[in-house]
Records
---
Amino acid sequence: MSFSWAGGRRPLSSENPSRQADEPGQYGLFTISEPHDVDGSADLDVVAIHGLNGHFQRTWTDPATDFNWLRGALPTAIPGARVLSFSYNSILQFSKSTSNLNVFADQLLESLLVERHPPASRDRPLVFICHSLGGLVFKQALLRAYERERYRPIATRTVGVLFFGTPHRGSQFASVATVLGSIIKAVSLGANTNTQLSKDLEPDSRVLEQVSDGFVDKAKNLRIFTYYETQKLSFLKSLVVDQQSARLGLAGELAVPIDGDHRSICRYPDAADKRLKIVLGHILELREASTTISQPVRSARAAPEMNPIEEMDFLRSLNTSNPELHKARNPAPVEGTCAWILQHPTYRTWYTSEISSLLWLSADPGCGKSVLASFLVDHFASMPGEERPRVCYFFFKSDHLEQRDGIHALQAVLHQLLQQRPGIVALASSHLGKAGPKSTAALWNTFAHCAELPDGGEGGAISARDTICVLDGLDECEQDTKQALTFLLSKYYSENRPRASPGPRLKLLATSRPDIPFKLAFDNRKRDSKPGGAGNRVPASMIRLRGEDEIDAISNDISMVIRSDIFGLECQDFPPDILSAIEIQLVAKADRTFLWVTLVLRLLKERVEEGASRRDIDEILQSRDIDFVYAGLLRTRLKNPRVRRLLGMILATPRPMTVEELSVALAVRNPAGKLSGSKDFNDVEYDVVFPHENHLKGLCGHFIRIIRGKVYLVHETAREFLLRIKEAPADGAPDTERIFRLSGCRRELVETCLTYLHCLASGAPTARTLPFLHFAAKEWPPIYNDLTGREKNSPKRFTGLCHPSHPGFSTWMPLALHNIKQTGLSGDDLQYHCLCMLGLILPDSRDIGRRIQQEAQSATQLGPMSSNPGAMGNHYFPVELDSHGAVRLDFKAVGWRARLQGSQVAAPAAVTIRGFAAATVRTASLTEGSDDEDDKGYILL
């Protein structure tokens, strides 16, 4: 069989597999099979990408039978598919290449562009098949395709991907970098290596983090099939990529275990292999899905058409949050737990109902509602093809501005639905109408309408694939949108009744605490249990499952969690008899509260690591008060000001801060009393502690959780605890004020941001202090605006930063105001404009400026005609900067030296430029002919 390579020469013969590929002509895109249908025209391009030390043919070939399924089975199963295989220098041993992931991604994109150059080929849907690290190459290529207009058609026509053993993230046992390190060790013998590729895959490489973070957003438009290994390689002690590492955890992903090790999961002895039939069935699903792209369903033919760019823009307007990351905040359930709900009669009634219906799962705080909701999302997403519903979800959390917003939630679930039904994007846009993606009612109505639209099948067939929407933690939604969303859900499901013809149903699962508003809205049992004949009974459209009543099921799950964690303590050589007694006491005291058990176990682990007596352990087990457990987790930590500052930042931040952001923020010294703050970024860097994560965990222990590089409190009740605890009384003295006041935490965080931004006067951030720049620039104005009255920081701390003459203005202001442009405004007017845009003053509130100016004149006893030019309102004066970044008047530029000869400017005083640039004037002796530095007046903005 002959092969073609896009842009290169023919490959070496595949009959010589031992020969190492290290010549440019052996790399590129090879055609494995042309279409086998009647007219020979392709309606789908399938592209295979091998992994580390792989080969474009051998990776997919069974070594015993020499059967390559890309050539021997795929074309027969999908006659209209053209099968391609990408070859790149992933060889570590014996290779002189310095190529990296970016190079491989660009090679793949350019080769695809050449291969798909004919007009008939450009719109052909694309499906990718990736083994191991070939998945990283694909993910990087997709990111670059979205970034560059040249490759954009490749990105928009990619409909799905099959990942075989690709490490997307770490597991509970290893980070993703550690997994990749294991792969490298498995294939590298330590000879000459592709050094650049090795560096890209090193544990401390930022490349992996950037690829993973960027792909999650772009993957929302794809259908993803993930296959993970179940057997170990003979020479390794563990799986190369376990299930947790192989799964992305996205709504549209289907994860399937494949019998085989890391190599054999993509190699099959013949076309009859049952594993291969599953894989081919999934590729066929992608082909069928590709035929509906940008095509309205039969019931929506009247919907206006949208071109791909318009569709992308509309989807982007809905893509305002990261539900996958929100879901990942919940710990993974211990194996065997949560399964009880699948057989629960109430759940079964809801799941099998013939109408769209709502299931409200209520339970008290700490009973595992979020873990159970996460389990159900994974369960629905992993169901077999024909049974699998479309799954949409959102996890509310009150400690995150984005995660507590009901509008963000509805945008997220609508976006997830349209990812799985790309053919109705235009219809959804039309239905949303002028209300746009900011209206709670319009978003819900559009989501419900699209969920119940029938699918248009081939030959006029209509399929009824249900949509299941999971909304976890409704009680943590902010008040306004919570009320609106609760009303919309109650109204929709109370009016929903059986229809004459079957069609897709919208099943919604909501979890919350058993609060009264939800009882009034969702508890439909009385309305659906009126007396009457069984034949006339109307199915309940709103059903309640009281988690607080499921004593046996929850107690059994808690026992499994305790047993799992106790096993971990056994590995630390703690006496088994004591551990057995601990297990018995924990089960007895748990009282159906996962949170208490989880926190106590963490506290026990911490004490055991330090060394603990039976008395120490009994003290921990004696308390049933969750606040006591929290106090135990913090123990003496709150005596450390750094701990209190860290927890205050977590309480005050409008969004979760990253490990790097918090580490730099902690290194910023705020001015306090006579103590000066950080002067420059070298000063800040000097106080940054490494390793970041170790330092943060060392400060707060198990009171915080670090998930995908972001820092959270261990639970919502921990936030409530911090905001109500008081200092312990000393010597009989009464309790002092709360340790944490939210307003004080916010003020402190604003001060930290401002101190950091003032360092810009002395130069750009260093590489190790740069991670905090975006947060410091963008987040402090809304935090400041949430403060009231005397709680606010002094305007003197930020007015100068907003003046274009400040050295850091051009660095931080574009981050805070994305739409700021060069204007013809004077410096003072631009300063005023920025203050208004940031919400720091009200537009047209010139009286504020006049009041500040009057205060300045009163303080200096200088009138408008004073020789102090800074006191003259509505006059402009040339300014320049000194070596400290201070803005000062340049008297030389206006020739005032002669007029002001012999004048002595009064003692340091507050003055203003146009009323907004609070300043201090240095005493200046203005003498004719003097060139000294003291010949100039300073205005410190």
---
Amino acid sequence: MLLRLTPFWSALGCLGMSYLLMAPVAAQVTPALHTLPTDTTVDNSGATTLVKNGTVEGTNLFHSFTQFSPGTKNVTFDFNPSLGIENIFGRVVGSSTPSNIDSLISASQTPVNIFLINPAGIIFGENARLDPGISFYGSTASSITFPDAEFTTVNPTSTDLLSMKIPTALQFTGSPGSIRIEGTGHLLSGGSQQLVDYSIIPDPIIGFEASPGNNIGLLGNGVTFDGGNVVADGGTLDIASLGPNSTVGITKNTNFGFDYTTVSQFSDITLNKKASIDASGDIGGSVRVYGNNITLSEAANIFAFTEASGTGGTVEVNAAGTLGIRGFDGSMPSGIFTKNTNLSLGGGGEVVVQANVLNLSGGGQIWSGNFNSGLRGGDVSVTANSLNISGDNNVGLFGRSGIYAVAQSDNAGGDLSIVANNIQLANGAALKTETSRKGNAGQIDLTVTNSISANESSQISSSTFGAGHAGNITVNATHLSLGGASVLTAQTQDTGNAGIVNLNLSNSLLLTDGSQVSTSTRGDGNAGDINVAANSISLSGVAQESSAISSKVAFNNAFGNGGDIDIQTQALSLSGGAQIASDTIGKGDSGNITVEVAGTTTITGIGVRTSDPDPISSGIASQVSQGGSGSGGFVKFRSSNLEISNGGVITGGTAGNGPSGSVTVNVADSLTISGSQNSRVSAISARTRTDRNAGNLAITTTTLQISDAGEVTVAGFNENGPSGNAGNLSVNARYIKLNNNASITGSTTSGQGGNLNLNAMHIIMLFDSEIATTAGTDNQPGDGGNITINAATVTGLFNSDIASNSFQGRGGRIVITAQGIFGLEFRLARTAGNDITAISLVNPELNGEVVLNTPDIDPTQALIEVPVVESPEIVERVCRVGVGHGRDGDGSLNVQGRAVPSSPTDAPGVGRILLRELDISGENRHLSQTPRLPAPQRSDRDRLIAQRIGQNAQGQLALTAQVANPTAQPSIPVLISAMQC
């Protein structure tokens, strides 16, 4: 036999080998007389034992023996070719001695099928082989049944009816014997990960071999391959281990086959010491192995390779108990393999495995390969109650124990399909499809009744390293758990696209300790989408990377786009640095993220990866990383409740040359943002860290609570030059509460500050909280963004501010429409009080504007809308201050609703007052983003902004520019109205 091999199947050096020397075994082939109408005769006189005569029925020839153990002596079934014999049936009767065959079996005419049954057992030595044209079926059955007769080993007589028809079954009664195949193992080696040129290796497997196109069947009560090899070059190999009282059907089309559907009890099959079952050939043969517990160890193999134009055959392994594939001899793993070589034109063979329990360990593998320019590779199909893979050794074609379907050709690789109750992967185990040329990688389809668990750097992956596309990965299961930096990934490193990941989980998805569900591109191909539907999703912890659901453009020269992420769940938890993320460091755009949570979402904490000392926040993020020029994707998030704490984030950002994506958050009930950890602040944000613009941010919820340094922000910062503009931020809520240094901001270091639009029933700010749009730094321009607030009440207490300020640019415009504004006062500088400011700190001529829209409220009932008037006509100067701003640099306060009359005697009327000429005194408050600036000298015409309504010495009400004065008369702040709920 000539087998064309890759370096994976290379010979161990030169082919010389020493054979085990055995003492000659005397030929013990003796006929059983008077058990047939025409007895068998045996001639042992020559170098070859001749089996003659027997009974002929049609094209069937029957022989009976008391012993059939030719040992090392060749045996020929000798008959007249004119008889047209097609099938020879031999039986061993009345013996407790197994048949020992260690020689050549031939026939005087071929092709012919030889059946041998010996209930005591059959042993094949390493020199056992078949003459060309012979198909051999050896069994420890007690009888062969026909439609009209039975050829039995139990008390046969010469009058037993024989048949000229095709047999229908093998009957196993009592305690049948076993079958043993002995030898020194195959000469194959492996371990190469570079499948390149192919070599022609003569006879790498020496054993019990049928010539091309012929078949071998071995069926006993226990089958052991002790270093033995069984070879059918392009034929069919049937290996089965049957329990007592079994019946195996016999079928006949072109060749004989066996039907195991009626077998109620199987026995064990063992392959060890580099034993092999090999149906490789030009046309690709098939292998069928049926047993209870089936074990392959010590580099034992079952395989069928296609070497020419034929389509590869199927390797089918069925274990009623456990199929165990384990071990590695230093150069070769144990395994089940099919492939079409680079010289073949046909499709690859299929691997079909059914087992109650399938265990792969110590390098054990199952794989299908496509290495030709013909058709697609064969599929791998596994059905098991329990699948357990432990990748103990870094050996074999892919370096891990696992199940593979690969393509290294211009045609597609096969698909990998697994149906199981449970799957457990550990210690580097793998389920993988892959392509490295134009052919597409196969799909991975996992259908699991209960759970899939992968730990210790195990992987479920589909990859492309060429123009072909990676396959999709689809998981239907109850639970999916990945731990210990394990991954489920579809990736491309070339022009081919990565596959799509679809996870449909009726219960939970759990990712821990740096494990990931991901798609990625490092080339021109696009990363695939990720779709996850689960009752609950929990991601936690980091290792070298974060636990994550992610899609990434992972190479700076990659033009491919990241995939979109879509998540549907009842409950979502992200902690310890875990993320749902899309990212680009290349020229392609990052993908979009859509998350819908019917219940509660919790995002909390940070993690420190072993690859990077900087802490990473738990959260949902779409970003353009440093060096990336693609656009960031959007984030759309929806949940009933959302809790972000201890550094958790939802963010869209850019640190590269591409613009940031937008962020939309919809929370039906309560949204809370609180706390920080290791300098990481809890936040919902859209940011830019370059000269590119930040995205927009929109939040809709019933209750928004931000506390303990938590923030909602659109921001632009750049340490290396001008920053991009902050995006626009809108919040629609019934209640907005900021407490203890909380903030809603739109700030930049030099670009345009973001615009804020807040709509709520009630807004409360406490203890150093702020709503602000600031722009610029000491040396950078930038205009403050605008702030628009629509609310029933707005309250600011304990040094809380509303500010739209800039350093060198223009102050923004603040418009507040409310029934009541409490605790806040309009000022031209930030103070230790509760301020509303819209100022330019460097250039007062660029101060912004504050517009307050308030209803008809004033206890004096004398306040009406009036035209713009000069402040000296209505202001009682309580005191003069020595510092202020010049006339042309004053900010302005617009009060809409009922206001001050043009004079105390004027009747109430309709109009508007714009206090352009009023100034304010008081100390500036130093903030980190707004350094203290020296106040300019007041001109001769000092002015103050009206701050309060108070009584003068005559008891009349007047606007006052009152500064801090503990003895001043009680007054009513202009900006405060009575609360109306």
